[in-house]
Amino acid sequence: RHERLDLGHAIAGSTPLKFKVFTKSCAGKDQITGGDMFKVLATKIDAETSMQGFNNPAITSDVVDMDDGSYEFSINSTLTGTFNLFIYQLVQGGLKGHYFTDEF
């Protein structure tokens, strides 16, 4: 699911951008346990458009699992500018699916 939010401002190299993510199940219900993994990708928005990933030392991301289905993110960058942040929930083995049997 994609949402566009204004997460505020941070100071490059000094003050990290902090925010919290609440996860939901495939059925749209709030998750009540932790254990998920995430990848953060930042895309700089300006005349010098460039991709900066979480493996790039210019963008660092820390994630704290609150063990209740929520996660606290802290993003820090040594680059100035405006960024789009993409947060991906990673699932071991690729796709996450829930299987069921239709009873007729």
Keywords:
104 residues, mainly beta, 6 strands
Quick structural overview:
The protein contains no helices and six strands.
SSE topology sketch:
Layout: E1 17-22, E2 37-45, E3 51-53, E4 59-65, E5 70-77, E6 82-90
Antiparallel strand pairs: 1-5, 2-3, 2-6, 4-5
Can you walk through the features of this model?
This protein is mostly beta strands. The protein contains no helices and six strands. It has a three-stranded antiparallel β-sheet with strand order 1-5-4, with no helix packed on it. Strands 3-2-6 form a three-stranded antiparallel β-sheet, with no helix packed on it. Strand 4 and strand 5 (70-77) form a beta hairpin.
Query: What Rg is obtained from the alpha carbons, in whole angstroms?
Result: 16 Å
Termini separation? 32 Å
Overall helicity: under 10%
Query: What structural category arises from helix and sheet content?
Result: mainly beta
Shape designation: elongated
What is the mean pLDDT? 77
Poorly predicted ranges: none
**Helical segment tally?**
0
SSE pattern = EEEEEE
